[in-house]
Amino acid sequence: MIEVHHLNNSRSQRILWLLEELEAPYKIINYKRDLDTNLAPEKLKTIHSLGKSPVISIDGKVIIESAAISTYIIDQYAPSGFSPDQNDEDYYKYLELMHYAEGSAMLPLLLLLYSSSLGENAEPLMGRIFSEINLHIGYLSECLGDNEFFFRNKFSGLDTMLSFVLEAAKISDSLKTFPNLTNALDRYQSRPAYKKALEKGGEYILGS
Ligand SMILES: N[C@@H](CCC(=O)N[C@@H](CS)C(=O)NCC(=O)O)C(=O)O
Q1: Tens digit of each residue's pLDDT (9 = 90 or more) over 77-96
Q2: Which of 45, 117, 156, 197 could hold 51 in an S-S bridge, CB 3.0 to 4.6 Å?
Q3: Which domain holds residue 120?
Q4: Which atom of ligand 1 is nearest to 54's Cα?
């Protein structure tokens, strides 16, 4: 069975949500952020040397990175047609957005988070950070268009992957000029599997 090494208030929540959507069997092993540093506890490094969450283990095999973990879970547990196979003409389009979430879209949102601790000293960076956030969130808005879901208007691993980006963007009010993304996030958060994952995962400030 999959063991999810789950950190409170973290990207690991999107993995619990995906597992709930697919009704896959899994066990949560909880880790708590340090109250002063907000970092993961050292013992997470006994699972993988980076000490980041999400990380899953299955029969001694360890997988890190949300996109790789999501792909593994989908390959193992999703019904056929849930995601495109390699022969599908849109396979690489799907792969692109799956990796875009962490590879590109999260970067300016993380810069904003980290630079906020610098107070006024971060001021010179803010214009560039916000223009990058706007660029990436604008791109996601364009990708979604009038659809409800990111891939062929059908729920997929892209929605669980991109949900964290939307949740992080909402914190800095960066979704407000993109009503299609605001509505998508509301729809995600009202799904029964999302709520069930929240109950199981515990503290998650981005989910409110
Ligand atoms: N790109 C990685 C990011 C993993 C990551 O940075 N996770 C954060 C939580 S959202 C973490 O473990 N932070 C705790 C720490 O750095 O100590 C993924 O998507 O899995």
Answers
A1: 999 999 999 999 999 999 99
A2: 45
A3: 91-191
A4: 20
